[in-house]
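Sample pair:
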Amino acid sequence: MGTGDFGQLVALAQDGDADAMERLLKEYGDAIQREIRFCLMDQRLRRVVGESDVFQSVIARFALKLREGQYHFDTPSDLVGLLKTMARTHVAHLARFWQARRRDLRKNRGIDAEGVTEPAAHDSTASSVVARVEMLELALARLSDRDRQILDWRQDGVIWQEVARRLNVPSSEALRKQHERALARVAQEVYPDE
């Protein structure tokens, strides 16, 4: 793909063109999936984190930030580098989460002959990812600017105490509960039957 074609494709994806996003995924999706596979070499983490879940999260976040104009690339290697970094960051965040939880898998999953049941695979076609991105955009549009900012900070790994400090809020625990209630309210509005 030439540099001009690449720039035009990114511009179309940034404008919300689903076909352009699908072409980007077809062109660069394998590189992201290889990076995710490499990051998920720890079998304990693979038991609770599915490759397709990480892939979908990275692509959804990328698509949202691209449409908001937060990303600019000159070359395809810049794009691939960004997506690989996003994948590594997301896997590291999940690893910290599961380590903190010290989850006992035997309580939550069936055990097969080898002692482990892998998470169910999800549909990760480009069109399903685009549909999820649109639903996510709808949900994010219903959040206040403050809650969207908190969501961005938390996704970037900022701890609650630091979020409270940045917002000049005395209690990080009260802030966390308020934010969870806001997310639950939006989830109920967007997915009323669930």
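The radius of gyration is 18 Å.
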